C-alpha cells in the first residue's frame, strides 16, 4: 500500500489530572497526558516521530517536545483558539497519510484556574489590543460580549429563547452526572440557569464554561501500527477546517459560524451525513456555541437549533447525545479545550465511558462521532469525523 493512501487511526488517548490541580505545572500535565496516552496505545515512545502542541512556552511546541524527550521530524503549532486541536488533527492525519510521519502525538495542558488563584495571571477579558482588535478592545468589547451579541442576534432573527439556551447547560450537567472526572456533576434546572448572576446579557453564569486545570493527549498513527496497538482502533474518516474573521465588523452573519464550512468538508470527505452521527462533541464555551454549531453542522436547519436542543434531545438517552462528558460547561475547560473533544469521542466509540457511556437506540455502542472545535468568537472551526469498524 502506498504511503499516500494510508488510513489514520487514533491509537491512544488520555487525560492528565483535571479539575482543581494546584500543584503541577502545565509541563507536568503535558507529561502526564502524554505518558498515559502512550500507555493506552501500548506503543513505545520511540515510535513517535510527529508532535503537535500549542499554548505553552515561547517556542511551542519545541519546549514541550524537549520536556517530553521527543525529537520529532514533523511538527505543528497551529494556534486558532479552541479549534486548534481539530485543525491540528487534520494536519497530522494528512501528514501520516502522505508518509511524512507515522505516529503523531498531540498534547495540551493548562493550569488556567490555579494560575488565577495563585495570582500568576488575571482573567483575560479581551485577547489583546493590538492589530485589528485595537478597534474593539478600548470600547469594552470583551470576548464574552462578542458571544453574547451573537446570541442576541440569533434570538432576534429566529425567536430563540433564553429557556432553550438554558436547556443546553441543563443537559451538559446531566451528562456530567455520570462522569467521575467532571468538575461539576450536580444537576441544574432551567430556572437555576436563568436565575444566576448576569455575566453578559443574555448569559448568566451557568451559560458560561467553567474554569479548570487539566490536559490531555491523543496519539494518531498510520494503519501499519494498528496490529500492535493495545486498543480497538478509531479511524479518522474525514476532516475540515475554516477561518472566518477577527473583528466583529468583518463577520457577515452573527448567526453562522465557520463550522458551516468545516462540517460540510469533513462529512463530505468522510462520505457520511450528519444524520448518521451517533454522538457529537462540540466546543461549548457558552451555550449559544452548542446551539449554533448544531445548526451549522447540519443536524437541523438554520434557526431551528432552539427547538432541536429542547426536551432532552441532546442529553443522556437523547436523539443526539452532545458533549457526553459534560463539556466545557460542566466537565472541564482549562483553555483551548478542543483536544478534549477528540478524547471523549474516542472514549465513547470504544465503549469506555463508564457511567456516561452513550448508546444507539438499539442499545449498541456508537459507531460514528463528530468532534467540532471553535476558536475565538466563532473565528475558526475544525471538524473531525471519527468511526470504528
List key phrases describing it.
nine-stranded mixed sheet, 12 helices, 11 strands, alpha/beta, 31% helix, 389 residues
Total helical segments: 12
Strand order of the main beta sheet, please?
A: 3-2-4-7-1-8-11-10-9
Strand content: 15-25%
Mean pLDDT: 94
Shape: globular
State the major sheet: 9 strands, mixed
Helix fraction, binned, reads 25-40%
Number of strands: 11
As residue ranges, the low-confidence spans are none
What is the SS-derived class?
Answer: alpha/beta
Topology pattern, helix = H, strand = E:
EHEHEHEHHHHEEEEHEHHHHEE
Query: What's the end-to-end separation, in Å?
Result: 20 Å
Account of the protein in words:
By secondary structure, the chain is α/β, with parallel strands linked by helices. Helices cover 31% and strands 17% of the residues. It has twelve helices and eleven strands. It has a nine-stranded mixed beta sheet, with helices on both faces. Strands 5-6 form a two-stranded antiparallel ribbon. Strand 2, helix 2 and strand 3 form a beta-alpha-beta unit. Helix 6 packs across helix 9 and helix 8 packs across helix 9. The protein is globular.
Short description:
The chain is of the alpha/beta class and 389 residues long. Helices cover 31% and strands 17% of the residues. Strand 5 (198-200) and strand 6 form a beta hairpin.
Amino acid at each position: 500500500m502506498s504511503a499516500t493512501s494510508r488510513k489514520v487511526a487514533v491509537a491512544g488517548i488520555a487525560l492528565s489530572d483535571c479539575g482543581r490541580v494546584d500543584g503541577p505545572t502545565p509541563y507536568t500535565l503535558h507529561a502526564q497526558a502524554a505518558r498515559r496516552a502512550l500507555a493506552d496505545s501500548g506503543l513505545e515512545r520511540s515510535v513517535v516521530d510527529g508532535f503537535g502542541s500549542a499554548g505553552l512556552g515561547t517556542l511551542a511546541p519545541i519546549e514541550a517536545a524537549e520536556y517530553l524527550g521527543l525529537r520529532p521530524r514533523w511538527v505543528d503549532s497551529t494556534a486558532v483558539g479552541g479549534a486548534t486541536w481539530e485543525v491540528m488533527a487534520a494536519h497530522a492525519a494528512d501528514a501520516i497519510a502522505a508518509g511524512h510521519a507515522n505516529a503523531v502525538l498531540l498534547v495540551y495542558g493548562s493550569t488556567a484556574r490555579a494560575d488565577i488563584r495563585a495570582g500568576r495571571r488575571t482573567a483575560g477579558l479581551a485577547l489583546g489590543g493590538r492589530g485589528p482588535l485595537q478597534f474593539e478592545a478600548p470600547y469594552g468589547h470583551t470576548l464574552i460580549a462578542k458571544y453574547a451579541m451573537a446570541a442576541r442576534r440569533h434570538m432576534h432573527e429566529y425567536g430563540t429563547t433564553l429557556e432553550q439556551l438554558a436547556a443546553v447547560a441543563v443537559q451538559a450537567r446531566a451528562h456530567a452526572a455520570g462522569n467521575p472526572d467532571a468538575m461539576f456533576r450536580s444537576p441544574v434546572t432551567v430556572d437555576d440557569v436563568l436565575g444566576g448572576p448576569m455575566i453578559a446579557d443574555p448569559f448568566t453564569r451557568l451559560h458560561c464554561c467553567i474554569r479548570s486545570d487539566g490536559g490531555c493527549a491523543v496519539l494518531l498513527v498510520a494503519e501499519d501500527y494498528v496490529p500492535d496497538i493495545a486498543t480497538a482502533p478509531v479511524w479518522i474518516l474525514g476532516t475540515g477546517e475554516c477561518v472566518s474573521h477577527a473583528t466583529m465588523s468583518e463577520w457577515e452573519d452573527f448567526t453562522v459560524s465557520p463550522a458551516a464550512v468545516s462540517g460540510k468538508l469533513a462529512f463530505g470527505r468522510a462520505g457520511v451525513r450528519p444524520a448518521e452521527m451517533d454522538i457529537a462533541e462540540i466546543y461549548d464555551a457558552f451555550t449559544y456555541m452548542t446551539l449554533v454549531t448544531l445548526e451549522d453542522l447540519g443536524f437541523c436547519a438554520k434557526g431551528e437549533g432552539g427547538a432541536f436542543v429542547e426536551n432532552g434531545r441532546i442529553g443522556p438517552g437523547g436523539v443526539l447525545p452532545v458533549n457526553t462528558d459534560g463539556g466545557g460547561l460542566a466537565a472541564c475547560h482549562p483553555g483551548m479545550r478542543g483536544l478534549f473533544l477528540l478524547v471523549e469521542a474516542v472514549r465513547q466509540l470504544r465503549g469506555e465511558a463508564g457511567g456516561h457511556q452513550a448508546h444507539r437506540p438499539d442499545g449498541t455502542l456508537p459507531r460514528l462521532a463528530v468532534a467540532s472545535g471553535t476558536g475565538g468568537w466563532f473565528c475558526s472551526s475544525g471538524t473531525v469525523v471519527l468511526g470504528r469498524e
